[in-house]
Amino acid sequence: MAQIKVDDLGYKPVGLAGKRWFYRLWEIIPGLTSWLIILGPIILSLTYPLVLAYFIIAFDIFWLLKSFRMSFGLVESYNIFKKAEKVNWTMRLEELKDVDGHLKKWQDKIEELKKPGLLSHSIFSKKKRQYEKSIEEIQRLGQIQDHKSTLIQPKEIYHVIITAVYNESIDVLKPSIEAILNSKFDPKKVIFVLAYEERGGEQTKKNAEILEGQYAKKFGGYLSICHPDGLKGEIKGKGANITYAGRIVQSYLEERKIEPENVVVTTLDSDHRPDPSYLPYLTYEYCINPNRKNISFQPMAMFFNNIWDAPAPMRVIATGNSFWLMMESVRHYRLRNFAAHAQSMQTLIDTDFWSVTSIVEDGHQYWRTFYTYDGDHLVEPLYVPIYQDAVLADNYRKTFLNQYKQLRRWAYGASDIPYVVTNNIKNKSIGFGKKWLQFFRLMEGHISWATAPLIITFAAWAPLFLNDEFSRQAIAHQLPVVASRILTIALIGQFITILLSLLMLPPRPKHYHRAKLIFMVLQWVLIPVTSILFGSAAALDAQTRLMFGRYPKAFDVTEKAVKK
Fold it and tell me: Which of 22, 120, 152, 376 could cysteine-pair with 125, CB 3.0–4.6 Å?
């Protein structure tokens, strides 16, 4: 992996930020920090056990408060999600043809409702609810009218959907393409790109030809693009694949004289199935946003395609991952590109598409865009699902191994830390506080990922078993009890997660008995196991590999199996 390329954007490394040893130091720091935190309770148990006791109590209280905040964020996100679900996004696109006319319609509605006797004092009055709805619509349309000069009409928008394929079967790919065709959006305004790997083999090429024959005429444009194996300067992975495809799409659009700012590009994995409202929702938000070039649009990743078929540990991880993105969505300043995301074609041209040297091209794309636009970049949440597969292979051993490798690959996002540090030093246009606060959030997230489950589970017991003298003191025996009670209170947040997981669970397949729903509840007792074995362990593995310069040579593709 070409680590000294610092930013993948053609900048020449200068000063401290260009020193190989400095970049290498920041590759070591995340893993070193995590290991020191994990070994800390052992060392303090033998040297300063009382200090450790107070630290553990403070740490558990911090996580108690954090769990409440996360639970509130999840509930808030769920409410926004359900509200967005009720919106007729196709109708909203129609409104953009005549914003003034629709605004006047709602203003007239307000005047009608203001007539004496029509509004009841009861908060449950139908007229009162209509009045409040009218106010909301006037505010929304008023904001659009304020930026009317920057508004793009929906008829001018084209969508490019790039689906990355390694060697997945047609059984996986067909439902994903059908989901796009079933969108509440004109498929003739969609350019579908099947970006497949040469290294996927002859069968992958045959699958691409079969799919093109079946679906090419149903879209406004259809491209099957084979990414050659072994191109110089690339790591074998999704980023290199979709970048190769993106550059061909750029030429395709230029030949047809389609302006890149009128094109929205969504990247999908082979198992991703967009909700029917995704494209109209994305189109609406893109058309009305005056800063659209500086925005990444992030739908909600829902790992629910095969949630009933996956083993219990994978179901817990899949639901947890889905809910994590939902929680982050209500805090825009923390939201990052993840899996399926969308950007303007102009933005992708400005950033030279995605990184071809990172296995975490989605999250890394956030930082590439952030520095390209001197910090003027945000990720805008779209409260609509892109349904994805929970990890499922042919047998349990493969499933567990694939899940571990997937999470380790995600955790390799720690490789962004030296990238961010060096670019923070070089870029003088971004405010000091803004760029270093971003670094702190990135660093804290990866360190917590690797250490928090282990500290919460084991640290309170360390002084009791490792220090004979301290174990004879009352506080040594009280410490696990106090820590346990604090964490028991935190289970309130877990109950909220369980309730929402049941509310969002897709319909039960007919071949499963109703009794399986009981196991969908009982599975949550596995959280301590999954958070350690597939959370901390995977993150520590990734950070340790980065510490010792064991860079990945290829993207670990998660096997997609269809249970029949």
Answer: 120
